[in-house]
Amino acid sequence: MTCLIIAEVGSVHDGSFGNALKLIEAAAESGVDVVKFQTHISAAETLRDAPMPPYFKGEPRYEYFERTGFRRDQWQELKAHCEAHNVEFLSSPFSQAAVELLEDIGVNRYKVGSGEMTNIPMLDAIGQTGKHVILSSGMSSWAELDTAVETIRRYHDHISVLQCTTSYPCPYEDVGLNVMLEMKERYGLPVGLSDHTLTIYASLAAVTLGASIIERHFAFSRRMYGSDARHSLEPDEMRDLVDGIRAIEIMLANPVDKDGMVNRMTPMKEIFEKSVVSVIDIQQGVTITADMIAVKKPGTGIPARRLHNIIGTTATRDIPADTLLQESDFDS
Questions:
Q1: pTM of the predicted model, to two decimals?
Q2: CATH code of the domain covering residue 87
Q3: Are residues 293 and 157 in the same domain?
Q4: 329 FRET partner, CA 20 to 30 A, in 146, 198, 272, 293?
Q5: Domains in the chain: how many in total?
Q6: Among residues of the chain, what percentage have pLDDT more than 70?
Q7: Are 178 and 290 in a shared domain?
């Protein structure tokens, strides 16, 4: 199964529609499947005095969402721009009003951010669309995640669940790959990783363990302004991630028959393995002793593993030193 790779642009465009378009292009060039934004409608999701997260104190949250948001026609154009570059458009809603906007422009699926997992009214609205839902578990207890999954399951079972740790950046010891595996067992649903580390290693490990979705924040540069830039992958890093995931998929899809592989290695075995050889001149009729023979390359003669079987046999001809022994050179 092919892993769905999501480049999370979020709001790193900083309200620049031009930057948003260019970020789509850069993500598409990196080989991702999906480019994801965040649809914030300030009046519908937050009070004016709501605090900013501890890792970003640049400006009040209400004003930040207001400043970096887009009009409906701009969202429509972003979706079209994704389609023109052969990537899927996706955006996380943070209110029921945002769900309505995204339904209006025609999204294929929904990604529910970690902070919205207890927003049951919004989950109901999303579930009613009948579309694939990706749930991110970064702030959820098992009980809260159970409720979120059950809420969507009232409408359909087209759900994926991502292990996520809401820590920016996330240290390796908090990635929780074991939790991803437990989610798969607990819900019987496809699972993945929303990775907030600073490298691609956790994502590659998750794919090896069976992740079907990988989400990574994406920016032109970690020096960009905003709440997510400093823990994002830059374009070259995203390309490395995509290439690594695709390579892992090839490996996982092609189990190797060990004995069959050995048969294909015959020419290499003949070059690198060793055979039994004489190390001194051996006269016909002499009983072969351990000091008369050894093993040397190439592996085209009597295999080295049979060295001890030849000791005690009788030479059937005069054998010069440094000769590759043949079965006819001795008898028992």
A1: 0.89
A2: 3.20.20.70
A3: no
A4: 272
A5: 2
A6: 100
A7: no
